[in-house]
Amino acid sequence: xxxxxxxxxxxxxxxxxxxxxxxxxxxxxxxxxxxxxxxxxxxxxxxxxxxxxxxxxxxxxxxxxxxxxxxxxxxxxxxxxxxxxxxxxxxxxxxxxxxxxxxxxxxxxxxxxxxxxxxxxxxxxxxxxxxxxxxxxxxxxxxxxxxxxxxxxxxxxxxxxxxxxxxxxxxxxxxxxxxxxxxxxxxxxxxxxxxxxxxxxxxxxxxxxxxxxxxxxxxxxxxxxxxxxxxxxxxxxxxxxxxxxxxxxxxxxxxxxxxxxxxxxxxxxxxxxxxxxxxxxxxxxxxxxxxxxxxxxxxxxxxxxxxxxxxxxxxxxxxxxxxxxxxxxxxxxxxxxxxxxxxxxxxxxxxxxxxxxxxxxxxxxxxxxxxxxxxxxxxxxxxxxxxxxxxxxxxxxxxxxxxxxxxxxxxxxxxxxxxxxxxxxxxxxxxxxxxxxxxxxxxxxxxxxxxxxxxxxxxxxxxxxxxxxxxxxxxxxx
Length: 478
What we know:
TIM Barrel, M1 Pyruvate Kinase, Domain 3, Pyruvate Kinase, Chain: A, domain 1, 3 domains, 8-stranded parallel β-barrel, 22% strand, elongated
């Protein structure tokens, strides 16, 4: 099944879409990768969903990516003695280490490291930012605050500290158990929440041991400040706009989204734009015009993937939401302005042989108006280099490794195919031409461009570029 667009669609599974027929419907509507949210998924359900996705993959005959999203640390206040407490602007409110149920003047905060790191002048955001406090005095066991934006605060509501670099990592014991279960079952991407600094990725990468790719979720201002270092440590990034919109001014989020997208494109890292893209379709069969423009903006920016969360997980119209996103992306990519915008943001190739080959392949293919470019890739690095060029033609990535083909399902413009590695140069050309024809990208008599590495099967050794003619149809592609 060939997509008629380059950007990929990431759909979250949930109660509305856990059954195999619903997963198949989402795939047929346009989903390329499925997200499993470990905040709501026990390990037995993780294994069940993985099996159902792989069954859909086997029937479709096309690699499907699976992303496992770890929950990360959750900071929450304690309980209240007499129901929700009304916090009024200008009043004082205290967070402390006393486990006694709270009142309108104080509440228990069961996170000792917060008291060690928070300082006077820092902001505290409660209940997804609906309530805002400012710390007046920080002591070892209490934070005395002034209420800047009031409201009713109830039991175990979440708390964010956008100005505070918290002295603990991005993984909890639950995350460690979830990560271990996910890589053992065979997911393709691990998304790490609560990333504050590059070092936060080290523990997850050590646990993964190359069995999956690592995606850093950018959802805190401290992560934006250390973006370059995080990009260096991660295999890809997610712009988690919902959490960013809580911890920084809403009007700053679009600019941050563009900054992250462009930085990832320059570095050749996949970038996912997420959260509330078609939010109204949770309960409506059509999106708002503003939501359509929001999705279109991410496509025009050249993001690798756009994500649906509640729309596909718990919404009333999950398949329609995927189909709508698919139509928007196709329309944008055929817009007269799309190619010039993508071209204007294209980064110069890195001074390496494989990058030079990929850049040359894109130039030759566009000059000759070829229908497709084919790259042989074992580790996926050559596929990423080809996608970094953002060519105006499809990229067919041929890999002998199914896990590589599945990971590349998240990458812009890449149509992954698992096949045996080429035995020699003749086999390389014949196999590329045969698959380009059978996958519906090229017709007999057309030319394609092929990149590969010699000796064959050597990861990261891309050093060959060939223009090849597609002959008559040949049955039996691997």
